[in-house]
Amino acid sequence: MIATLAADVEPGAVRGAEMEIPEIPVIELVRPMPGFSDDLSFTLVRLDDDGTLCELRSLANPDLRFLVVSAGLFFADYAPEISDDDAQALELTRAEDALVLVLLNPGESLESTTANLLAPVVVNTTSLRAAQIVLDDRRHPLAAPLVR
Amino acid sequence: MLVLSRKAGESVLVGDDIEVTILEIRGDVVRVGIAAPRSVSVQRSELIAQVSDSNRAAASPSANAVASLAAALRKP
Question: Coiled coil where (chain A) (predicted)?
Answer without folding.
Answer: none
